[in-house]
Structures are given as structure tokens and as C-alpha cells.
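Researcher: Hi, I'm a grad student and pretty new to this. My advisor asked me to get structures for two proteins we've been looking at. I'm not sure of the right format, so I'll just paste the first sequence and hope you can take it from there.
Model: That works fine. Here's the first sequence with its C-alpha cells right after it:
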Amino acid sequence: MSEQPSGTGPVDVFELGSEHEQVVFANDPATGLKAIVAIHSTALGPALGGTRFYPYASTADAVQDVLNLSRGMSYKAALAGLDLGGGKAVIIGDPATLKSEALLRAYGRFVESINGRYYTACDVGTFSEDMDHIARECSYVTGRTVAHGGAGDSSVLTAYGVFQGMRAAAEVAWGAPTLAGRTVGVAGIGKVGRHLVRHLIEDGAAVVVTDVHQPSVDAVVAEFPQVTSVASTDALVASELDVYAPCALGGAITDEVVDVLTAKIVCGAANNQLAHPGVEKSLEDRGILYAPDYCVNAGGLIQVADELEGFSFERAQQRASGIFDTTRRVFELAASDGVSPATAADRLAERRMRDVGRLRGIWLP
């Protein structure tokens, strides 16, 4: 049983994760490990998704996050054309104080026990070096360091894919696949946001940034002196923008944000950007083009998935370049079916899971 996020009392976990194949809770008091692995679907293959290390306010919040994120991974892998399912894991705690070799190796043993139905990789709070520790106990790890034959930092192609999706959105909005001369606001300039800023500057865009971590802002402004910064996300959203790129945590697109947003495009790296169902309709009503998050941020997944074949950056980047065409296809379907881009992306992903998905339903190694 898990407490309901709304605080209305206990609710059956099967109700919370009614679409999911498997949810595994891991506890190792000796190292302080408290982790949850959620496997949403293995219709297309074993589930692949990163491990998020985050100080959730409650177990209920962690459960809700891992369920939402794992579902998004199924759709992301399907839309990206990968033969992989969707999964995600969260470790509850502050990585700055709790993360240790012992904890990561204990976590690796838990992932190993799932026997290949879930492959882990990096996410918020975890890095390629952490995957190397996990891999000492586990065979089902990707996103490892280059020194260990891995793909390294998956944020490189995540940002590249977001940039490709943004180019496709610009083509729809302004007739040309470029951000040259446009003002792009980037909220969150961590691993992905910083790479995205570089692509935008190289393409001739004016960039405005914000981040709760001031050293990240200072580092980007030092590297790119033409970048300007504002004090908060609220200030960024209220700025005169052509494109708004949420690149931090989810739920960034709220009713309040839609009401004040001047941007014509929303396209960013964050997962689960829409705060609740119906926000996509509000964006559409205001004439704001939304590039579905799991469509444009699939570059990191493509990068770490390529590692399973023996990593080639050139091959992975070529595959990530396809995000431009995939995003364009989403916009074309949205226009032809008279639906939002979010609905169109879901339809394309669900079609592939249905048409290509293995008839046996769940994947076994």
C-alpha cells in the first residue's frame, strides 16, 4: 500500500499503476537505499530508463513520479523507433549526502535481480560514473563512461535532439527550420540545458536563461557572454520570447504559465512538462505550438540504447537527427487529424506499440 499523493488516505498501488506491468520496491537499510523501479511496458522489448536520485518529500511523491516517468519512457522509445520498452527508477534521498559506492552497488544488485526486464541509465542526480559502480554488480546498465566502453554523458544527444525538434517547430511557426534571430528562453541549464544553449547560439538565436543553481548560470554566461540571465522562471516566462524551453523538472507548463507566455513555441528537454490534462488545449487556444516533450528529448535514450550494440557516437547522432523528421510528422498528423501535437504524438507511439509490439505481451530474457 502507498499513501495517496493528495493525502486522502491509503490507496492500492495497483490503482496508481494500473497500466504498469511491474513495480519493484528495494530497501537496503545498511546503505540507506530506498529505490523504486517501475516497468510500464515491455511490448517492444526490455524496458530502458534512467535512475533518478532525488530527495522526494514523501514515498507517495516518489511512486507517482516513477510511474509517470516510466510511462513516458514507453512512448518515447516507441516514437523514437527503438525496440525497447519503458521503465524508470528512483532512489529516494539527497545524492549530495546519501550517494555512496556501497549504495550504488546495492542498487545494482536489485536491478540485477529483475533479470534483464529493466536496463538502467543516468537521470537527474546520477552520472556515468555512478553507472560504472552499478555495473560492478549488474549486467543491465547503459550510459557508462567512455573509459568503460560506454556512451558517456547522454545529455549531449538529449540537447541535440531537442534542438532538432525546435527546428521542426520553427519551420511550422515561421516557415524555416532555424532559430536564427529568435529569442529562446531556457529554464534549467544543467547537463542538457547548457548543451542546448550552445546549439542555439551557434544557430544565431538570442538566449535568455535561468536556473535555481546560480553557479550554473554563471558558468553559461562566462562561456557565452552574449547570453542574458533572469532571476527566476517566473521572470523568464513573462519575458518577450519566441520559444520557451523548459529543461528542468516536470510540470512546468501550468495554466498560469500559459496565461502569461508570449512565446509561440514550447519545446524543451524536461519530462512530463504539461502540469495536467487539458493544458495542451490551452496552449493550442492561445496559438502556442507545443513540441511534445518525449518526442524531442529522446536523443539521450537513443544515445544510451546505441550502447547496447557497442557504442558509436556517429551512428547515435545520426539516429538522433531523425527527431527532426519525427517531430515534423507529429505536427503533420496533428494538423490532418485536427488534434493537439500531444495527442498526435501519443497516437503515433501507441500505433507502433500495437502494430510492432510482441504478441506475447511481456518481454522475458
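Researcher: Oh nice, that was easy. Here's the second one.
Model: And its structure:
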Amino acid sequence: MQVKLTNRQQHILWATVRHYIATAEPVGSKTLIEEFDLGVSSATIRNVMVVLEKSGLLYQPHTSAGRIPSDSGYRIYVDKLMKPSETLAREVESTFQQRLHWEDWSLEALLQGAAQILATLSGCITLITMPQSQTAQLRHLQLVQVETGKIMLIVVTDGYETHSRLMELFPESADTKLDPEAIDRELQIVSNFLNTHLRGCTLLELSQLDWSKLDQEFQRYGEFLKSSLTELLHRASTPSTTQIMIRGVGEVLRQPEFSQVQQVQTIMHLLEEEQEQLWRLICEEPEVEETGKSKVTVRIGAENPLEPIQTCSLISSTYRRGSQPVGSVGVLGPTRLDYENAIAVVAAAADYLSEAFSHTA
């Protein structure tokens, strides 16, 4: 809905949203006069609030109460009236640098630490997805003979996630006597060759390689490698319910918006039992700014396609390795959210994780 507001209407909408975010109390003209230097009379503020209500940007929860922002009111506030806190963004970046050490930590420890810091700073439920395996880079590949004629392909990603595939090497040679020691030597040579040339490739890139380019003496491994990597890719690209790290649930559920037990139960069910739906939502790739960074996506109330969080706001962005998105970071809270701060901390967290992943080999 396109709503054109005058400067005065924008200012009064801004003040109404700011007061309600801070207090969770409906706002009247007298309160705005006392708290904000609006430069107009109480009667003028009342008239403007009536116009904003007719435009669908404010509403009265009760007949005798003041007004509170609607989802549309928050949308105009986020898009046109607020500016993310640059000061907080710098503080978040500094906090990450002081408390997280991606050079020394494992991937899981890094993401757990980032999720906890983000939950503390935002006061929201924090959601950080584990890196998607399709975009994870190859750290090590090994071919191992487990018994005569059967070998295992083991792939270790840069996040130390391991995938393996067992397969019969030469089914057409079942009656042919194979030399296990010769096979071991060949497998080691092929493993060394592949590690030298493929380290840093993604699983998706591995599946698209032309295995016919292998040296002639190793051609017989080509079909095995191609089929094995295709299956590993399919397995790795299937979303898992363990892919989202969640922190800060207890704090946000103490907000007055979550006073009804039924509402809390539906949100908890989504977080615990329906993570695949949530994963698909926050992993939708946002637009990319000219700087190459991912934009922050803000979904307010009914803009969320998942019913359990249609009274919430979800703010998310992607973290990247270079230009390649590998995962998402987000916060979930009531629509009465301090958007300036929430957007700033999500952007800072995504930038930090992108830097960390871009420096991992």
C-alpha cells in the first residue's frame, strides 16, 4: 500500500512508533506532547493521528486507549523514517572481534558464540544457519580401500563437516583377481592429485568436473568419483533440522506480546519441530548492495508467510565467502521491535561472519 505522508504526519508517526517500542503502551497526543518536541498543539496531533489511523498506519486496541502502530505503520517507519544505528554497528563489530576468534575456533564454536552475542545485544531470538554444504569448500579428499574391490570416498569441507560414500570399485571385474597393494598405491596417488587440484572447490563444482581429464592410467576411477560425488551432493544439500542455531528464546518470550500460552506454544513448535520451514524462509537470498554485501531483509508481521510468526518481525541477512552466500543470520522478535538496533546488529554479525569465512582456507 502506497501512502504519501506530509512531513508532519511522518514526524508524528515516527514519535508514535518510538514511544510504543519503548513502553509497549498505546500512545495518545498528550504523551507525544510531553515526550517529543513536535512543535504543534495537542489538537493537531490528535487530528494527524486520526488521519494515520484511517490510512491503516495506526489503530486503537481498545476504544478508550491510545493508538499503536500497525504492520503497515512499522513498514513505513523502517523504510522511510529510521536509520540503523551506526554507533551500535561499530560496537557489535568490536564485540565480535574481542570475544570471537575465528582463527583459532572451530566452525561450530564460532557460530555458537556469534549467536549468543547477537541474542544478548538484540534481546531477540537469534537464528544462525550452519553453512550450506553445496557452497562449502573442499578441505580434504581421501580414497580408502576398505576391502578388496571396495573403496570409500571421504570428503572433508572447510567447516570440518565429513561426508563419505562406500562403493564397489570395479563390479565388472568381480571375477578378476585385484592386487590390494597396487590399488592402495593408486588410490593414494589419485587422492594426492585431487587434493592438489581441487582444494577450495565447492561440492557443486566437484560434481560438474570433467573426470575424463584424469591421466589415462587413472581413467577407471572417473565414473566412481562422479557418481559418488553426485550422491554426496544430494545428501549434503538436503536441509536438516539441526542446521539452525537458536539462542535467546527465554528472554524474548518474557515480552508482553507473548503473554498468551497458545502463542508461545506455536512459536516453540516452529523453532523445535518445523525448522525446515524456518530454514527455507531465512535462507532466501536477499538482494546484494553495490558494495557486494547482502542487504538486510525485514519481514514485519503478516509479511511472514509462516503463520506462527505473523505477530513477529524477522530480520535476516546472509553471510558469505567472497561473493558466494553460505548461510544466514537473523533475529526474531515482536513487531514492537527496536528496528534501528536490530538491523544494525544483524548487518554487523553478517559482515563479521563473512570476513571470517572469506579468510578460512
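Researcher: Is there anything I should tell my advisor about the second?
Model: You could mention this: The beta strands are 58-59, 68-69, 125-129, 138-147, 150-157, 162-168, 244-247, 297-300, 312-321, 324-334.
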